[in-house]
Amino acid sequence: MITQVETGSPNILAFRLRGKLHDEDYRTFLPGVDAAVAAAQGKLRLLAQFEDFHGWDVQAAWEDFKFGVRHYADFDRIAFVGERRWQKWMAVICKPFTKAEVKYFDASEIETAWAWVREAS
Fold it and tell me: What pTM, to 2 d.p., does this model score?
């Protein structure tokens, strides 16, 4: 399940990802992101918080890949906040698929992640 988190800024998107993601999750999630990108003045920032996250089914993984390709240059910072070592590797793996600066934060560092995403460039 993907749940949008209120950020107080039109140029910062945040989502909480829980459980195992399916393509239905992306069908509800992606239109909002596409609309935010279209309305943005400049690049967006993204915070993805993984809680009790179990990965993707095959179709959802494909949707996630297409999302990355479609929005390759739309973000300037992406923060991954996770609970497991493999989630840290996701931050490393996604770097070639985005122009954004990507950082991983442990779940205990959530406030630091928010500060980094909100920090002026």
Answer: 0.89
Domain ranges of the chain: 17-118
75-118 pLDDT, tens digit per residue, is: 999 999 998 776 676 777 777 778 999 999 999 999 999 999 99
Measure the CA–CA gap between 83 and 96, rounded to whole angstroms: 23
Distance CA 73, CA 98 (A): 6
The CATH homologous superfamily of the domain defined by 17-118: SpoIIaa-like domains (3.40.50.10600)
Please give the backbone phi and psi of residue 101, each rounded to the nearest 5 degrees, phi first.
-75, 130
Q: Could you give the C-alpha distances from 33 to 23, 58, 62, in angstroms and in order?
A: 15, 21, 17
For residue 51, what are its two tokens? 């809680």
